[in-house]
Amino acid sequence: MASEVNADALTGKALLKKVKDLEHLSKEEKAKACGYYTVTKNGVERVNMMKFLNALIDAEGIQLDSTQSGNGRGGRSASYRITVQSNGNLLIGSAYTKQMGLKPGDEFEISLGRKHIRLKQITEDGEEIDMDD
Questions:
Q1: Which residue numbers delimit the SpoVT-AbrB domain (predicted)?
Q2: Domain range spanning residue 110?
Q3: Scanning 35, 36, 62, 84, which has its CA 20 to 30 A from the CA of 4?
Q4: Cβ distance 95 to 47 under 8 Å?
C-alpha cells in the first residue's frame, strides 16, 4: 500500500515555476521532481500523475467544476473524498466544517459501521442531532 504524496510537494506558483524550469523532462519526471510520488512498503517509487495534474490545474486557476464556492475566495472545494493518512488518521477539512456551519468545540458521537462512520452532533444540553438531515 502506498503512502501519501510527499508533504513537501510543490503547489501554486512554486509548482508552475518548477515545471517551467524542467520543460526538458517527461511529465512523469516533472511530477516526481515536484514531489508527486509515493514510496510503497517495498521501496518502489510510484508517480501520482493525477494529483500532479490536479495541482497544475489548481495552480493555473482553471475552474473545471461548474459550481463555484460562494465565498468568492480561492482555496480548495470539498471533494467528498478523504484518504487515511500514513499515521492512520482521517482528516475532515475545513471545507466540510464551514459548509455545515460547525464551530471549534462542537462535539460529536462517532458510531462505526462495517465500512462507514456516522457522526451525531451533541448539543450543549447533551442532545444528539443526526447529521443525515
A1: 79-124
A2: 92-133
A3: 62
A4: no
